[in-house]
């Protein structure tokens, strides 16, 4: 599986909004390796409005969370989806 950083260079010349087929065609024209093309072909067939939407939809490896991102999630009690009685009490 490819990373987002491997896919991103093949999206630099793309004009958005664009269809999935146009994105794949542009990547082929730029000489993208087969792994990148496979990731782009795995996207849903919708209009993409920018490069970030493509990178989120492409079948790429998800980067590991940084310690700072993990800390932010740990402090966010609203979206942890843990039953109230299972949470550790705060003082």
From TrEMBL:
Name of this protein: DUF2795 domain-containing protein
Superkingdom of the organism of origin: Bacteria
Region (Disordered): 66-91
Name of a matching Pfam family: DUF2795
């Amino acid at each position: 599986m490819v990373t987002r950083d491997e896919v991103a260079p093949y999206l630099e010349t793309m004009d958005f909004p664009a269809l999935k087929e146009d994105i794949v065609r542009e990547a082929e024209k730029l000489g993208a390796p087969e792994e990148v093309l496979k990731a782009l072909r795995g996207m849903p067939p919708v209009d993409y409005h920018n490069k970030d939407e493509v990178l989120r939809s492409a079948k790429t490896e998800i980067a590991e969370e940084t310690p700072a991102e993990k800390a932010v999630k740990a402090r966010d009690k609203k979206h942890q989806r843990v039953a109230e009685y299972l949470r550790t009490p705060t003082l």
